[in-house]
Amino acid sequence: MEADVLVAGAGPVGLALAIALLQHGVRVRVVDKAPGPATTSRANFVHARGSEVLDRLDALTGLPEESVRAMTITTYAGDRPMMRIRFGDPGLNTAAPPLVISQARVEARLRERLAELGGQPEWGSAVVAADQDASGVTAVLGDGRTVRAGWLVGCDGTGSTVRKLAGIAFPGVKVSERFLLVDARLDTTLDRSGTSGWVHPDGMLGAMPMPGGQWRLLAYDPAFREDKPSEEQIVERMRRILPGRTGLGGIRLLDASWASLFSVHRRLADAYRRGRILLAGDAAHVHAPFGGQGMLTGLGDAENLAWKLALVIGGMAGERLLDTYQAERRPLATQVLRGSTATTKVNIASGPVGRFLRDRVMVPAFNLPVVQRWTTYTTSQLWVSYRRGPLGGRGGRPRPGDRVPDVACERTDGTRTRLHAELRGRWAVVGDSALFEAARRRLGDRVVHLRPVEALPAMLVRPDAHLACKGDPTRWLDGALA
């Protein structure tokens, strides 16, 4: 066996999965059909939950300092502000801030972390065939080489070859017509402390500040009918519509570093696993970019799958544990798809009913502080819980399956630390030494013993910062890992 896990796709999800597996001591090989790393990206926002995942991967270093702190969204009708949403701390105890930063930069930091652990992506290496049996998967690469691995995970995007090879359906619908996307420098007096958006009869337009003095421009433009336009044509179209849509006569697009054209689709894989082949990220679910949920959801997939695969590969759990991956993550993807689809329809509403609901109902509501706190809470995904899944449970909060906040703790030698900083490929027992010994009998050196600074119930915390159980972990571990 050349690797325990073959990861197809070196985007943020594939890289995060590989890092998490390496943290657990699993042998990983990462391949990607692209000739090299991406230098541009559609995603440009990492919510708090995503920052937490990066922190637990020890891959957050430097990114907060590079990011833009643009935590407001102001929507205009012409030059009249209609709505201002202020993002902030929803009071969920996280040390990881939301970031406005290019996905390409996030990927670069993930590659650095992967290299620190001894791994590197193999570029120009597409998976073109895969045959699985009872003990593993034999994958064929584009150059004719074969790779034998215990498991194959498709993190290879919306057009996933791995998903097709596994015979997993990917049903869905088209939600919108064309959007223009351009990263460029602007001659403008727009405030860079937040995102600006404009409601216009011809389609919405948004401008988001990016690191390096650039702006991310996004415009809904169903009237743009060029067949397979070049980047130059997309930029020129954006340059023409920018003053009219914004109502800012002096705004000018100076030069662009990237341009793209896309339509919004909503798709969800019928299954996340077929034998020894699994899916994560856009290979399993795809939806609108509004709300910044795509990369965020994919990073959560990677972290959830990694610790489960590691236990199965290490002989510490049965394969039934892998079924909980779909059971925990697919319902979340369903919810995200519904929310992002609804947001898209509101943003592109052109009929009188849609405009009335947006301008007369939603706009006043979203100016209320309580609704803004709810928006931050919802988009952050810090609320995600698996309490209704096969590993969840009932009782007082936090309940089994709930996210455990990044609370202050002490190591056994008395030094201060944070809970999430101690996870990084490990479980944590927050409580007395007897419970720690009970967990260690089943998990070995994959578990760390911590004491809370403030009073908390004794608990076993999963590597993805969700509560496994309270009190003696023996029964829960026996059931979950059977």
Give a structural overview.
This protein is 33% helix and 27% strand. It is built from 13 helices and 24 strands. It has helices spanning 12-23, 48-56, 63-66, 103-116, 161-166, 231-246, 294-313, 320-347, 352-366, 369-380, 419-423, 433-443, 474-480; strands spanning 3-8, 28-31, 45-46, 72-77, 80-86, 99-100, 121-122, 127-132, 137-141, 146-154, 172-187, 195-199, 205-209, 215-220, 252-268, 273-274, 277-279, 285-286, 408-411, 416-418, 427-430, 447-452, 459-461, 467-470. Strands 1, 2, 7, 8, 9, 10, 16 and 17 form an eight-stranded mixed β-sheet that branches. Helix 1 packs parallel to helix 7 (294-313). The chain is globular, with a radius of gyration of 23 Å. The two termini are 25 Å apart.
Labels describing this entry:
eight-stranded mixed beta sheet; globular; 13 helices; alpha+beta
Helix content: 25-40%
Number of helices: 13
State the total count of DSSP E strands.
Answer: 24
- Percentage of β-strand residues: 25-35%
Q: Spans with pLDDT under 50 lasting ≥5 residues? A: none
Give the terminus-to-terminus CA distance.
25 Å
**Mean pLDDT over the residues:** 89
Whole-number radius of gyration? 23 Å
The largest pleated sheet is described as: 8 strands, mixed
Shape: globular
Structural class: alpha+beta
Give a short summary of the structure.
This protein is α+β, with helices and mostly antiparallel strands and about 475 residues long.
